[in-house]
Write a structure and sequence with these properties.
38% of the residues lie in helices and 21% in strands. It is an alpha/beta fold and 506 residues long. It folds into 3 domains: 113 residues, no CATH class; 46 residues, no CATH class; 227 residues, pyruvate-formate lyase- activating enzyme, CATH 3.80.30. Helix 1 packs parallel to helix 2.
């Protein structure tokens, strides 16, 4: 375990993910300095760092003092006197600059201890391309962007180049939309056939919660009807059904829901209607035909891996054959814009497994491919029950990522959006690839936070973008299905009050 003691706890969200990136297998505990028990204090003395080729030991404690004109970092190693060093700040820095300076100093110390570098440097947020996107919008040159991303954030040249490539593509795609005068809708269906080992999303077993599904749809219908005309001066751009697994609903329930959405909202200017079909074991011909009936133009069929041993480990209760059959049914029913998701870094997998998965996907030939790097969330069973999977850690995850990049290049898939999550394997990223003209527009809008997203359903979070003020506000719904059902009027009222107070500025 590594104890992190901060003079200002406000920096916890900056320090914790950086320490975790260097020590992914360690438990990290963060304390405020004044709260830390006096009996835990270690004597602070200067010490030399070993320059031998032997692996340097882990650290037990990390002390960081955030002072007005300097930052002091002290490391306690194997209960021995600590290494302590100050970094002077010559000028009074703005808060964001001060924070970045502190993170760079910490990065240098941890990189020295571990002999590791991180491809994204000190960037720990989920939208690294957003920085580059905004710089390109300001007509900054590539040389300027490279210099800033290297010096301010310590990013590798490879990740900077990837960010520029993706941000340019996003700019091109969004230039074709008047996104400021539009809005999008997200509708959450929080039911799944089973809960995957790595999942921490709002999802509930369809079998265990079957008695609630109709009541959930009743509440969701009430929320949909309540907001059908909430943006009279905006055009609907995209509609996205996610979850959970929307196709966990029966064909009749899907028909009811999609019909309601088409009835209540004006689809005249809609660029994309997407349903994340997701789990192959939830897909049937009847459901696929319902999607086509109501004009759904983009769907996802997500195997995550095409290795049966992996599917069994992670709790995906379907077979490889079911993935192939679901894809064939989708083609047979006229779906011509299909995305497939895979995850690299899954328990027990190696580069050979990923190579085989990619070759099987090549035979299916989807229009887009989304590559996720495994991120282990605190609420996921893979974290809660981690002792059971300690010997199944994936090997050579960066090599797996490189395989997917090469696969995309060779098969005419272009990267068009990128995002990151906390605790990702090897500090990597998630990348969406698509053939030209088949990109997921909603994915760009939600990641770059360029458009208001009205989110409906349990666990859904609406994001309201104030373009003139360059700010964003969130209004969330409760996550629990039962709470959502019983408190639907409260959820509706909360958003209505927000809109009444802010609609003139949106």
């Amino acid at each position: 375990m590594i104890e992190v003691i901060l003079s200002e706890k406000a920096y916890e969200n900056d320090v914790y993910p950086l320490v975790k990136a260097f020590y992914p297998d360690e438990v990290i505990k963060v304390y405020a300095k004044e709260e830390y028990q006096a009996g835990h204090l270690q004597a602070v003395k200067s010490a030399e760092v070993s320059e031998t080729g032997v692996s340097k030991p882990s650290i037990e404690q990390l002390w960081i003092d955030f002072l007005p004109q300097c930052i002091e970092i002290s490391l306690v190693i194997d209960d021995n006197p600590v290494i302590s060093e100050q970094r002077m700040l010559l000028d009074k820095l703005a808060k964001s600059k001060y924070k970045n300076a502190a993170k760079r100093f910490l990065y240098e110390k941890l990189s020295d201890r571990t002999n590791k570098t991180l491809p994204w440097g000190i960037l720990t947020g989920i939208r690294p391309t957003k920085l580059v996107y905004e710089l390109l919008e300001q007509s900054e040159t590539e040389d300027t962007i490279y210099h800033l991303m290297r010096s301010e954030y310590l990013c590798s040249d490879e990740k900077i180049a990837m960010s520029i490539d993706i941000a340019r593509r996003e700019l091109q795609l969004l230039s074709e939309l008047d996104y400021r005068k539009g809005y999008s809708i997200y509708i959450g269906i929080p039911f799944c056939p089973s809960t995957c080992l790595y999942c921490s999303f709002t999802s509930y077993s369809a079998a265990k919660y079957s008695e609630y599904i109709e009541r959930y749809l009743d509440a969701l219908e009430k929320e949909i009807r309540s907001f059908a005309n909430c943006f009279p001066d905006k055009r609907l751009t995209t509609v996205y059904l996610g979850g959970g697994t929307p196709t966990t609903l029966s064909a009749e329930q899907l028909d009811r829901l999609l019909g309601l959405v088409r009835e209540q909202f004006d689809f005249t200017y809609v660029k994309e209607f997407c349903v994340e079909a997701g789990r192959p074991d939830s897909i049937t011909r009847d459901k696929l035909m319902v999607l086509k009936k109501w004009g759904v133009g983009r769907i996802s069929i997500n195997p995550q891996s095409m290795q049966q041993k992996t599917l069994d480990i992670i709790g995906r209760r379907h077979t490889i054959e079911q993935v192939i059959e679901a894809f064939r049914l989708a083609r047979d029913t006229g779906h011509d814009n299909i995305n497939m998701d895979i995850i690299i870094g899954l328990p027990g997998e190696n580069p050979e497994d990923v190579s085989d998965t990619l070759q099987q996907i090549k035979k299916l030939n989807p229009e887009s491919l989304t590559v996720h790097t495994l991120a282990i969330k605190r609420a996921a069973r893979l974290n809660i029950e981690k002792e059971q999977y300690v010997d199944m850690k994936a090997s050579e995850v960066p090599q797996m990522m490189e395989q997917t990049i090469q696969f995309a290049n060779k098969n005419n898939y272009l990267p068009y959006y990128l995002y990151r999550q906390k605790n990702m394997a090897d500090n990597l990223e998630n990348i969406g690839y698509a053939r030209n003209g088949k990109e997921g527009i909603y994915n760009i809008l939600i990641m770059e936070e360029k458009q208001t997203i009205l989110a409906l359903g349990a666990g859904a979070m609406s994001k309201f973008v104030f373009h003139k003020e360059n700010r964003l506000e969130r209004v969330d719904n409760v996550k629990s299905v039962t709470d959502y059902i019983s408190r639907i009027d409260e959820m509706i009222t909360r958003k209505k009050i927000f809109l009444e107070e802010n609609i003139a500025n949106l």
